Structure formats: C-alpha cells, structure tokens
Amino acid sequence: MYDVPTLTDYSAAALEKAAAECIRACSGEAAEVRSEAELKAFRDRWMARKNGILTQINDLWLKGAPKDAKREAGIRVNELKSRIQELVEGAHVGHVAAESYAADHVDISLPGIRRPIGAEHPVIKTMHEMVGVFTRLGYSVAEGPVVETDYYNFESLNFPVNHPARDTQDTLFIAGQQGKPQRERLLLRTHTSPVQIRTMEKMRPPLRIVIPGPVHRNDPPDASHSPMFHQIEGLAVDTNITFGDLKGTLDHAMKEFFGSSVKTSFRPSFFPFTEPSAEMYVSCFICGGSGRRGADPCRPCKQTGWIEILGCGMVDPNVFEFVKDSGYDPRKVSGFAFGMGADRIALLKYGVDDIQLFFQGDVRFLGQFV
Ligand SMILES: [Zn+2]
Fold first, then answer.
1. For 86-113, what is each residue's pLDDT tens digit?
2. How far apart are CA 103 and CA 105, in angstroms?
3. How far is the centre of ligand 1, averaged over its atoms, from the C-alpha of 297 (Å)?
4. Looking at residue 74, what is its pLDDT?
5. CATH code for residues 122-369
6. What's the pTM?
7. DSSP letters of 279-347?
8. Residue 130 alpha carbon to ligand 1 centre in Å
C-alpha cells in the first residue's frame, strides 16, 4: 500500500517524481476495486478530510515546505490533487462499468422480452362456458360462502336430522363446533345448493339463477375424486313451472354446450330437495352414441353410448316451506333445480383421465389448454 513520504528535496524534479509515484499508486488501487464496499474504502483512503492521502500530502508536502519552495510546491500539489480527484471519481466496480455500457447501447430494433401470459384453468373455463349458456337464457349468477352452517347446507334443503350425508365420512366439519346447536355448526359446503336458499331469502319469485363454485367432500383423492371440486347449479321458480320446462331448458343447454347433435335422457332418481328427481344423461359426444370408437370400445361412456351429466328435479315443496315468508308459498309457486360437476365435464370435454391433474398446479399440464 502506498504511504505518503516526507519530502526532503523540494526541487522540481523531486516533486515531479513524488507526484508520479502517487498517481501510479492511486491508479493501481483504482483498477483493483471489485465491489461497492471496496470502492467506498478506496475513496475514503484517498479523499477523507481527516487523514486521507490528499490531506496528508497537503500537510507533509505543502505545509512542511521551506518558504522559498512553497510557491512551486503549491502549484505541483494542486495539479496532483486534481489528478487524484479525477482518478478517484472515475473509479468504479467492474460490473457497474459493464452495465453502464449496455445502457448506453440499447438496440431498439431487437425484439422485446415476452412475458408468458396466464390463461383460464380448464375447470374455470368449463364453468364460465356452462354459466354462459344459462345467462344467455336470462339466468342471473348467484354465489355464496364456502364455509356454511348445517342449516343452509342440510336442514333447509330437506335433509332429515340423521341423514348419512352429515356423517364426518362425507362432510368436512370445522373443528370445535360441538357446543353449538346442530343447525349453527360450521362446515365446508358439500354442494352449491345452500346458495338457492340464501338467494330465495333475499329475492322474491320469479327467480332464475345459476350458481357456480367450489365445494368440499371428505373423499380421499384418486383419479376420479378430489376433496375439493366444482359445481354448477341452477334454480328456476315461478308460477306453473313444470317438469316439461326442466326438460326443455336442460335439453337446450346441453345442445348448446356439447353440440346440437346430442340427445338427452332422463332417468328416475332421488335427492332430498327435489321431488320427483332425475338423473340426466347425454348421448356420448365422444363416440356419437355408438359405444365404440372404430374397433375399440368407448371408455368415457363405458360402451353404453350415454354419459350421466347431472342431477335434477322439481323443487320439493318442503324446501319452499323454509323460505315461505320471502314469497315462496309452495301452494302458489313451483320450480326446478339441477346441479352438475364442472370438473367431471372438463375431464370428459378435454379427454383427461385423472382429476388430480387439474389441481396439482403443473404448468406443463395446464399449458396444454391455453
Ligand atoms: Zn361413448
């Protein structure tokens, strides 16, 4: 490291030599700077007011000069100072220099950096498409909480007190609810149907709503089950709504969603909140209802030519009893309801054979649906 020498010879040649040595030392140290911390240390060493090298030079070479050499020494020291200042101010860390070079030489003719844009998840996309079919029929979209009470999820939908759906093997309950009356206990809704009750409490008939959203069941994950999945549900209430309206509406919706060639078929079923109830099948849109794909059997319809798509039925008058005060007198109004799994429809539509793939967040999988 360079140390400021004490001068004994103040001749022009001696001053010149001392100044040259000082500049060479400063220049060498400037070239060694490799980090911001080193740059700061370098600047302090040379420029600090208290005991920096320039201050030392001032003290040792100028103040210490004999009277007759002071003028000459003053000129030399001032020259040296400005030279050192230039070197110190011009010093920088290697990569800083490289960056400033790049900033000065931007080629605006090069293509920009393209950021990948996200896209709708296949399940959400399916939901939006199906909801769109019903909003074009004049339905409004209704939503509700995912954490529900037993009252909205079961009781008001005509589930008897000891119905097995309340079992913890089927339903995910919020912990620590045992101290509450059953109807107030919180759970993760097992279907979107509570939104039917919540909407009827707020809006008088006639009513036409479609309800998309996530639901939860206590199902271990496998290729066709997920503890979280999505439903799309619908409800129409008015005077003189009949099963014929239900069939006509759903037949139209399936043709719009799957294509005008699909047929629908209704088979008797049971749900606590509808009476009568039915399961609706559509003719297989993969094999065209033949049950075969060339020489191979059609797996999605299990060779039957039909695929079960949704559950539906006429709203049970017992359900209207719970919202009678909001204008739903079961003697005056009637309605139909239906519900389907959006994830299952997405599986069929996109030919995916494992529902888990939808929720694992693997961009390589999801990127195929953009
Ligand atoms: Zn088929």
1. 888 888 876 444 455 555 677 788 888 8
2. 5
3. 8
4. 87
5. 3.30.930.10
6. 0.68
7. EEEEE-TTTTTSSEETTEE-TTTTTSSEEEEEEEEEEPHHHHHTTGGGT--TTT-EEEEEEEEHHHHHH
8. 21
